[in-house]
Inverse folding.
């Protein structure tokens, strides 16, 4: 089953805390291309990347907020099988 997540809140947090996607990619130790694929639902974020993102000096996300940033499913048309 393919899941599509809405990363708009995450994108806003990246700009708020780090300024650019490039800075966030550097903190995750991945390329900008890899980050783009994650934010476009082509590749999933790893558990380690989510844990890194939670750090105070990265995106400062509380444990109870993780779902809002990484697991907020897009609502819309369901593709046909």
């Amino acid at each position: 089953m393919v899941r599509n997540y809405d990363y708009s809140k995450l994108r806003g947090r990246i700009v708020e805390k780090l300024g650019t996607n490039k800075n966030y990619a550097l903190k995750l130790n991945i390329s900008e291309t890899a980050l783009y694929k994650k934010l476009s639902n082509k590749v999933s974020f790893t558990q380690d990347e989510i844990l890194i993102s939670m750090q105070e000096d990265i995106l400062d996300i509380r444990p109870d907020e993780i779902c809002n940033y990484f697991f907020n499913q897009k609502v819309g048309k369901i593709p046909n099988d």
Notes: The chain has a mean pLDDT of 93.
